[in-house]
Amino acid sequence: MITDTMDGDQLYKNQTRHSQLFMEKASTVMPGGVTANIKYFQPNPIVMQKANGAYLYDVDGNEYIDYLLSYGALMLGHGNKTIKGAIFEQMNNDGTLLFGTPHRHEIEMAHRIQSLYPSMKKLRYTNSGTEATLLALRLAKAYTQKDGLAKFEGHYHGGYDEVLVSVNPSLNQAGPREEPHSVLESKGMASSHTQTTVILPFNDLENCEKILRKKQKDIGALIIEPLQGGFIRAEQPFIEGLRKLTKELGIVFIFDEVKTGFRVALGGAQELYGIEPDLTTLGKVIGGGFPVGIVGGLDDIMDLSAPRQSADVFDPSQSQKSDAADVLFHSGTYNGHPTILAAGLATIDVLTKESSNVFKLTKELKEQLSHLFKTKSIPMKAVGEGSIFNIVLTNKKKILDYRELQSSDLYMRRKIDLRLMIEGIYTKPLNRYSLSTAHTEIEVEKTIAAFERVLDGL
């Protein structure tokens, strides 16, 4: 049994005093001192001042090897020169940051995406992964003419009401494993979402089938993180069974690859599984550090969003002839932003050459950590694929779903994470580890040494 010999929270506070002062000031102008709840953690977030490659530097002058990488978005690390060059080239050659019209970068990126994700026959750009999943659900509902959706317990698809259900429910509210309850995850949500958003048990095909067959007349979309949280893998028979079942029941099957796109394989989880979903959402990595989202899929589904002269919400002259509800509306001033697409194209160029090296280094780090924990007699599983993994403190042979993750030693994991920050290893407590092309053997060696010091100190 691991026991504390020092107060890790106090050590952490001593090292991040200027971050604490910053957060106190920030709280006077921003609720909780942050602009996104995900950026906050106890006892206080670390405020960063600069970054370079695989490293972050905070306002107290501390250096960290960054394994959060903006929640996996920065697969080329911080300040990548190729991305910077592509951005400056776009601005100089195009003479603008924003056209507000169709432009060549949109079709160039579309062809590159389709070469890696052949299921995306046609696509649309959005400004975030959240917007991408929102559009995907609207497309699915329009296509099936069914308003309900199904998602999995423990899966996250954005911060809006429809999908902010049973993401991290307490187990005393979650209901039976075989038919989980729909648990609202925020104030201000309509209680009706507990009826329209159906929750499914991950990696349990038999019970998923029972629920989907019972509610097939209502459910138009099934959205899934093919690897829950980016690291808990769907079993192959499970994902194949879902693909077959959704086709039979007339439910649009959506792969949310915002986390897994490019990270578990260059062609995402669908390359890993050999599965073609009806719709795919991408984000994070493909923006190269900028906000972006992409939705793509089957022609007949995507073509629902094509503008038609007879129904245009922006054309008042049409209002006497038709109803705007006759067309699926999707728009956004910054959709297909030329600077962001230039960064994304540069990211693909680099990853095409270097992603295999990132995957190899990630595997090496996972193996060394597994060996280290074993030598310290601490049960641990390094769970994940490609360039993402998470450290789960458990004796279980496999982690298959949210409930098994909840039964791991999350309390001790948080203590380890805080002490790793003191040792210069950064990820948000309890979060997954992501690697980039900027990480090398040097960072792996430093990380293993830091882990050893932390584990010896507990």
UniProtKB/TrEMBL annotation:
The keyword Transferase applies. GO terms for molecular function: pyridoxal phosphate binding; transaminase activity. The keyword Electron transport does not apply. InterPro entries: Aminotrans_3, Aminotrans_3_PPA_site, PyrdxlP-dep_Trfase, PyrdxlP-dep_Trfase_major, PyrdxlP-dep_Trfase_small. Pfam families: Aminotran_3. Its cofactor is pyridoxal 5'-phosphate. Keywords: Aminotransferase, Pyridoxal phosphate, Transferase. Belongs to the class-III pyridoxal-phosphate-dependent aminotransferase family. This is Aspartate aminotransferase family protein.
